[in-house]
Recover the amino acids of this structure.
């Protein structure tokens, strides 16, 4: 069974040799070892220096996140996971299976894993995006300069969907990380792991946004525009296809406030779409219009606005049996209600990120208690939907990619 | 003038003869009546219009007639007649696993389609039924209760021929002996050849190109899109030239049409451009703003037709791109809007954190 190795060496190689090299990597690092932080710093610098990487805001965000200055505070929060009698150690070999086409999200879980001292095997699909190709090239540059001990800490391979290869790699994994749709997760989950191994899955998710209407109306024009622009970044960077990009907007307030705030906000958002020159392909637009018409027939829609074709907004009369099917490409569903509690019966485990404006921590905490784990893994201010945090899909990745060892002298 | 009179006037007047403004005056009230009719009789249509165009009463121009996306016929059974009045259900030809359009016809709509198609075809074929070569297999039309678009197309066209001869077997092999027999009997006088563009090229032309046949008395009518031929780099011009060189066949008419508006077909004139018949029209829209585009600017094609009574398909936004070349500015004897179809809107798949890998993993 031959796979294509992309990093650290570009070559075709026996799959068994890949696992052998990972298992033989005798020196592993402690969590947040200075060498690893240095390596992240070098990677970050190389990304910033790369002219080709400038075209990709997601790569820039990634490079910013992995600067040593940013990793320092993370180290402190990881140390807080240790108690007087417990220490964190790596889990061993982490087998990452990123989604076929988004981009750079998996790099975060890989870096977290690397920081915790794990060795990593990453399978990228044969249809890699330009971002991923570029990233592999930069990684190889960084590795070429790095201490040889890094050479076999991370191996990136490319192969099709040969189950035998996934089986072989899974046999040597201590943790398996699967990003992908529900079908992918199910398909890969059927491949056995060693009894002691753990698994993190990042399946299909849905995200939403809530705004206190009155608080939005209280903003002056600049503030109101600025919030719309943050929402734009959350939503349109990945054509509304990132799992944390909002698709449902909840307006909280009395009827009149909600209507006014909605109108004002979406008008400003439309202006922002124009300013940024967001122009989806014809096929995406047509698909969006067809989706809107289908939604009108199948869902309790009470109003349709299209903001001159730039932004279809569908108002829901009820969240009962709320369907999470969505076309992406910039279509908003909205619901007006008196408060956040309206979400409670509608939320399911599919729901991931709630971006919000105008609520205080007491209200948000109350919501979490009301939901009590039935859904919503993250609540962040508008503008931070796509910002990676080690808290993702209900995991603290630092915790999940390490073991806690109890020590009592 | 009543709606029925207007409709008959458009139908019976010489096709392609009205200047655009006069045609619009006659067509607009018919389309407004259809909008009203379907609002009353089709609850889904009523709901769509009330939300997409709240407060709308009447369109003041063809461009204002509300349209619905063609994809809706794939996901919803849109009917303006009770189930027991369904006389025929047409389905689009999709590949396996694809959703197909479902179009419900009552007897009256089916009749209108037949009459309308007859008016268009007699314009190019003359008043008499001609001996006809069908470039397809007889197996296609055996199930008469439920028609694929291809079968509906073939059956619709068969009304304009006689002594029908199916030239392909079920494996798409050309029956050469049968073809020679047909030509011996009928080839010296006008005859008709009909088939789908790709099949005519692949299974008919490719086989006869070396046979030295004389098809100079034939009229070839074909339809179904150029996508597969574009992949083989065969253009409309190349198609025509090849038939002329190989078999002296020069009377060739391509047409554009769809199962969602059977009977409203747009046939080529001698200038190689497509023309709307009297009772139908097209509008090209900017995909970003949905505004009507002037001649010369390519966009998404919307088709209008006065025919559909049994389903709300009188104004449909297609998934095709096209361009109108002029209004009443044709060099042929036809008036109205000459246009070209530029192909399908490319399917664009947005890629998310989740979706695309699934297909790969499931494979």
């Amino acid at each position: 069974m031959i796979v294509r190795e992309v990093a650290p060496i570009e070559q075709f190689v026996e799959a068994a040799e890949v696992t052998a090299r990972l298992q033989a990597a005798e020196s592993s690092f402690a969590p947040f070892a200075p060498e690893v932080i240095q390596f992240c710093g070098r990677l970050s610098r190389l990304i910033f220096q790369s002219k080709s990487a400038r075209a990709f805001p997601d790569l820039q965000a990634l490079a910013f996140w992995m600067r040593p200055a940013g990793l320092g505070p993370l180290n402190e929060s990881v140390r807080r996971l240790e108690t007087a009698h417990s220490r964190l150690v790596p889990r061993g070999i982490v087998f990452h299976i990123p989604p076929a086409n988004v981009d750079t999200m998996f790099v975060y879980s890989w870096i977290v894993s690397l920081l915790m001292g794990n060795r990593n095997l990453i399978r990228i699909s044969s249809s890699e995006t330009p971002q991923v190709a570029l990233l592999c090239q930069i990684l190889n540059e960084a590795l070429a300069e790095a201490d040889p001990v890094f050479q076999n800490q991370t191996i990136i391979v490319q192969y099709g969907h040969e189950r035998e290869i996934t089986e072989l790699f899974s046999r040597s994994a201590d943790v398996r990380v699967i990003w992908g749709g529900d079908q992918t997760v199910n398909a890969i989950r059927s491949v056995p792991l060693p009894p002691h191994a753990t698994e993190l899955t990042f399946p299909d998710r849905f995200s939403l946004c809530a705004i206190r209407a009155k608080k939005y109306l209280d903003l002056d024009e600049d503030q109101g525009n600025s919030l719309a622009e943050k929402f734009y970044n959350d939503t349109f960077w990945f054509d509304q296809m990132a799992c944390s990009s909002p698709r449902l907007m909840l307006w909280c307030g009395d009827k009149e406030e909600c209507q006014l705030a909605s109108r004002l906000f979406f008008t400003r958002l439309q202006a922002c779409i124009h300013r940024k020159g967001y122009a989806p392909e014809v096929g995406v637009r047509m698909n969006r219009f067809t989706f809107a018409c289908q939604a009108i027939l199948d869902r309790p829609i009470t109003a349709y606005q299209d903001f001159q074709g730039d932004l279809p907004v569908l108002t829901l009369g009820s969240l009962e049996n709320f369907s999470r099917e969505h076309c992406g490409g910039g279509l908003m569903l909205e619901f007006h209600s008196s408060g956040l509690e309206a979400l409670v019966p509608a939320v399911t485990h599919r729901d991931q990120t709630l971006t919000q404006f105008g609520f205080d921590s007491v209200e948000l905490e109350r919501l979490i208690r009301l939901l009590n784990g039935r859904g919503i893994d993250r609540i962040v201010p508008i503008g931070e939907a796509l910002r990676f945090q080690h808290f993702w899909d209900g995991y603290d990745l630092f915790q999940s990619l390490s073991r806690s060892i109890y020590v009592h002298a | 003038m009543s709606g029925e009179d207007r409709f008959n006037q458009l139908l019976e007047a010489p096709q392609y003869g009205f200047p655009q403004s006069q045609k619009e005056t006659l067509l607009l009230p018919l389309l407004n009546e259809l909008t009203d009719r379907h609002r009353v009789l089709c609850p889904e249509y009523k709901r769509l219009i009330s939300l997409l165009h709240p407060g709308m009463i009447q369109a003041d121009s063809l461009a204002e007639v509300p349209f619905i996306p063609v994809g809706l016929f794939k996901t919803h059974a849109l009917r303006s007649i009770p189930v027991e009045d369904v006389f025929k259900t047409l389905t689009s030809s999709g590949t396996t696993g694809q959703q197909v359009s479902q179009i419900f016809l009552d007897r009256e709509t089916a009749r209108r389609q037949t009459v309308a198609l007859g008016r268009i075809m007699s314009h190019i074929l003359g008043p008499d039924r001609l001996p006809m070569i069908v470039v397809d297999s007889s197996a296609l039309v055996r199930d008469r209760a439920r028609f694929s678009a291809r079968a509906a197309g073939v059956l619709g066209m068969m009304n304009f021929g006689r002594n029908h001869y199916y030239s392909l077997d079920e494996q798409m092999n050309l029956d050469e002996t049968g073809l020679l027999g047909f030509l011996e009997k009928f080839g010296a006088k006008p005859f008709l050849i009909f088939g789908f563009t790709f099949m005519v090229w692949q299974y008919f032309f490719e086989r006869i190109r070396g046979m030295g046949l004389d098809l100079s008395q034939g009229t070839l009518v074909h339809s179904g899109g150029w996508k597969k031929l574009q992949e083989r780099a065969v253009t409309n011009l190349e198609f025509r030239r090849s038939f002329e060189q190989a078999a002296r066949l020069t009377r060739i008419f391509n047409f554009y049409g769809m199962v969602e508006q059977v009977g409203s077909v747009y046939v080529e004139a001698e200038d190689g451009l497509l023309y709307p018949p009297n009772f139908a029209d097209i509008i090209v829209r900017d995909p970003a703003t949905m505004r009507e585009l002037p001649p010369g600017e390519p966009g998404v094609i919307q088709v209008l037709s006065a025919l559909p009574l049994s389903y709300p398909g009188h104004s449909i936004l297609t998934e095709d791109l096209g361009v109108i070349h002029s209004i009443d500015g044709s060099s042929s004897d036809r008036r109205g809007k000459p246009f070209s179809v530029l192909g399908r809107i490319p399917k664009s798949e947005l890629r998310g954190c989740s979706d695309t890998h699934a297909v790969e993993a499931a494979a």
Remarks:
- Residues 279 and 306 of chain B are 6 Å apart (CA to CA).
- Chain B has a mean pLDDT of 89.
- Chain B touches chain A at residues 44, 47-48, 51-52, 54, 68-69, 71-72, 75-76, 287-290, 300, 317, 319, 321, 345-348, 350-363 (CB under 8 Å).
- Chain B has eleven helices and 15 strands.
